[in-house]
Amino acid sequence: MDVDMGRDGRQDTAELVHRPTRADILAGVRLRERRRRLHLVRWGLTGLFGTGAVLVVTSPESSAFSFVAAVFCAAWIWSIPHLQAHHALRTVAWQGEYRTSVGEAGIATETEHVTLVQRWSVFRGYHETRDHVVLLSRDPNILLVEVLPKRGLRSPQDGERLLALVGRHLPRV
């Protein structure tokens, strides 16, 4: 990985070493969902099927199948972000440990099998949570979400450096 040097000759990068977890991916999926306002659709449909289940129970001529189907649909729609995170984790977990370097040129990630370099121009902005820094892609559907888990940093100073680097190149969303 290339290492960028600042004007004063010091290393101006933040390094992360981690293995992806379901919580990491779920943080990215949830942020993407909120930015696209899909959480409103998901909760609306969950409420609709939940209301349908209540109406089926209170109806004198209802069937157990209708109740089970309505509850199943409500639970399935509510769990979509969790299902997406599970699927994405299965897709990337086999690659093992991720070594990520965030610098002036962008984000470089290496695993035993893959090297990926993403320039800052790929992203539209970032959002910081308690445990993650999530970067959202520039495309209209936000197909790419980069999650940088803070647990992968070596020290709190690395966390400050990471946020300073990201903040120099991307707006907070």
What key phrases describe this protein's structure?
three-stranded antiparallel sheet; membrane; PH-domain like; disordered N terminus; transmembrane; 5 helices; alpha+beta; 173 residues
The arrangement of helices and strands along the chain is EHHHHEEEEEEH
Q: How far is it from the N-terminal to the C-terminal residue, by CA?
A: 28 Å
How large is the count of helical segments? 5
Q: Indicate how many domains the architecture comprises.
A: 2
| Overall radius of gyration | 21 Å
Please write the CATH class name of the largest domain: Mainly Beta
Query: Structural class given helices, strands, pairing?
Result: alpha+beta
The CATH homologous superfamily of the largest domain is named Pleckstrin-homology domain (PH domain)/Phosphotyrosine-binding domain (PTB)
The whole-number mean of residue pLDDT values reads 89
Q: Percent helix among the residues?
A: 40-55%
Let me know the number of strands.
Answer: 7
Protein name: YcxB family protein
Organism: Streptomyces ferrugineus
Keywords: Membrane, Transmembrane, Transmembrane helix
